[in-house]
Amino acid sequence: MDANVRVPGDEIIRLDRVTKRFGGITAVNDVSFGIESGEIHAVVGENGAGKSTIMKMLAGVHRPDGGTLLLRGQPVTIADPLHARNLGVSIVFQELNLFPHLTVAGNVFANREATHGPGLLDERTMVAATRRVLDQMGVALDPNARVGRLSVAEKQLVEIARTLQQQSDIIIMDEPNSALSAAETERLFALLRRLRDKGLTIIYVSHRLEEVFAIADRISVIRDGRYQGTWAIAGTTIPAIIAQMIGRRLDEAFPQREPVPAEAPTAVSVAGLRVGTHVGPVDFSVRAGEILGFAGLEGSGIGEVFHVLFGLAKPTDGEVVYKGRSAAPRSPFEAIRQGFALIPANRRDEGLMTSWSIRRNASLAVLDKLLDRLGMIDRGRERGLATDAVRKLHVATDSIDKRVVNLSGGNQQKVVVAKWLATGPEILILNDPTRGIDVGAKSEIYALCDELARQGLALLFTSSEIEETLGVCDRILVFHKGRVIREFARGEATKADVMHWVAGGVIPEVEEVVGQKGEDPRLST
After folding, report:
1. β-pair type (66-71, 74-76)
2. Where are the alpha helices (DSSP H) in 230-345?
3. Could you say which DSSP state residue 116 is in?
4. Could you tell me if residue 132 is inside a domain?
5. 3-class secondary structure, 383
6. Of 95, 108, 116, 198, which is most buried, counting CB atoms within 10 Å of its CB?
C-alpha cells in the first residue's frame, strides 16, 4: 500500500504535549491526544476549558508555545488560517463568516475567484464548480442565490461547501448547531456522516452532549486546560463524560429542593387561557417559592403562554389571575410593573445589547429608577447596581465596563438574569435559560433558580434538555399541541416518562371525552 494513502484508523492529527499561554494564563496545558482519519471526533469541555484554543491552533489562528502539532504523521508549524487551508484544515465557526451580498458561488470562491482574461470573473466556472460540490453534498441550493436571503442552516451548508471546494479533508465544526432547529440539525448530521464515510475527518465542538453522542465516533474531554481522556461513544455515557468535564456527577449539579410549604400562597394562576386557534384551553397555577416546569416540543404552546404572561401576546380567551387582577398584562412595560420578568431563549438577540457594557445592560430595565433630580442617570447608583449584580451572580469579569460580547455564554446569561432581577420581580419566567452554555455555568444557573425560589419568587421554567427540567423543578406540566396533557410531581417521572408524554403519549382521560365535541382532542391543533 502507498505510504501516503490514509485509511480509516490512521491518526491524521496528533497533539504532543501542546501548551498555549496568554499572558500569565495557561489556556492549554501539556495536552496530548490523537484524532483518526475518517472519524467524527468530538472535543468537549466547559467554557474556558481550552477546547476552542486547541481548535484555533489547528486552524492557524494561534501558535503553540510548547509541544508539537503533527499532521498526517509529520510535525507542522501552522503559520496562519490560509496555511491551514492549504494543509487541508478548515474551520466553520459558530459565528458564520459569509458575505451576505454575494451569491452562494461568490462565497464559496471568496478570495479565490476564478478569472479569465485581465481581472474578469469567470462566473460560469465558479457556478459550475459550486453546483458540483453541492451535488456531492446532496444539498439542493442554488449557486446563484444571495446568501443574505438564506436561513442559518443553509448558510452553514455554504460554509461547508466552501471548505470542500478548497479540498479540505479535515473540517472543524465549532458549535455548528447552536442556532439550528431539530430538523435542520438532523440534516446537518446526515451530511457530516456522508462526508465521514467518504473519508473526511470531522472535529466537532459542542455543548450539547446528547447531540454529540448522536453524531460522534469518539469524544475527548478537556478540563481546565488539561486533557482528561478519549472514549469511544459506544463505550461511555453522558453522565460519565459530564463527570470528566466538571469533576463531579451530573446529579450533584442539581440542588436538593425542599418541598414547597402547603400554606404558600398562589403567585399566579391561569384559567381557560387560549392563544390564537392552536393553544388552549390551558389551566395551571404556581405558588410563591415554587419552580414550575414546562416540557413540550417546539410549537407545543409553551412559548405562547410565556408571551401572554409577559405582555408580548394577547390571549383570545381565559384569564391570568395575579394580585386580584384577572387580566393578562397588556404590554411588557405593564408586565414589569406588575412583577413579571422574562429570561428569553435567545439572549443575544432578545436579552442583551452585546456591544454595551455589563453596567449598561444590568441597569437597562430600571433606568427610570436611577434618575437624579434633574432627570439624568445617576451613574454612581448605576455602577453600584451593576457591581452588586456581578458579585451576587458571580459574573467572571475584571470590570463592569467590559463589553458583554467579550463574556462567555454563561456569564452573558448571568447578565441577562441580573438585568431582570433589578426590576424586583415576583414571577420569573425562564425560557431555556442554559441554552448554549457549558455544564459548569449550568449548575450555577440551577443553584440560582433554587436560591430565588427560596427567597419567595415563583419561577416558570422550561428547557430543551429534559434532564434539567426534572432536576430543577418542583412540578412539571407536559404540553402537547397547545394543551397540558400530563402533570408530574418532583421525583415522580423519568426522562423516558416525560419524553413519552411530550410526544403525545396515550391519554386515557382524553380518550374518554372523544366524541363530546365531535373530535379527538389529541389531534386538535
Report:
1. antiparallel
2. 238-246, 302-309, 332-338
3. E
4. yes
5. helix
6. 108
* Residues 418 and 490 both lie in one domain: yes
**Calpha distance 282→94 (Å, rounded):** 37
Give the CA distances from residue 171 to residues 32, 84, 306, 354, 461, in Å, rounded to whole numbers and listed in that order: 20, 11, 39, 29, 37
Question: 120-121 and 218-223: which strand pairing?
Answer: unpaired
Where in the sequence is the domain holding 207, given as residue range(s)? 11-249
Q: d(Cα 457, Cα 445) in Å, to the nearest integer?
A: 15
Domain boundary (220, 249, 278) is at: 249
Report d(CA 437, CA 431) in Å as an integer. Answer: 14
Q: Grid coordinates in use for 83?
A: 496555511
pTM, 2 dp: 0.59
> How many domains, the chain?
2
Amino acid at 36: E
Which of 249, 280, 312 terminates a domain? The answer is 249
64 shares its domain with 185: yes
DSSP letter at 349?
I
Give me 282's grid cell: 390551558
Digitized pLDDT (tens) for each residue of the chain, 525 residues in all: 343 344 455 899 999 999 998 877 788 999 999 999 999 999 998 766 888 889 999 999 899 999 999 999 999 999 998 899 889 998 887 656 788 889 999 888 887 788 877 778 888 899 999 998 888 777 788 999 998 888 877 887 888 888 878 778 898 988 765 556 667 778 778 888 988 998 999 999 887 788 889 999 999 999 888 999 999 999 999 888 888 887 766 556 688 888 888 888 999 999 999 998 888 799 999 999 999 999 988 778 898 999 999 988 898 999 999 887 888 888 888 888 888 988 887 776 777 787 888 888 888 877 777 777 777 888 888 888 888 888 877 787 888 888 888 877 777 888 888 888 888 889 999 888 887 676 667 778 888 889 899 989 999 999 887 888 998 999 999 998 889 998 999 888 888 888 888 877 644 343 333 333 333 332 222
Cβ contacts of 258 within 8 Å, gap of 6 or more: none
Joined grid coordinates for residue 294: 414546562
Determine the Cα–Cα distance for residues 387 and 207; give it in Å rounded to an integer.
29
Whichever domain contains 32, its CATH number is 3.40.50.300
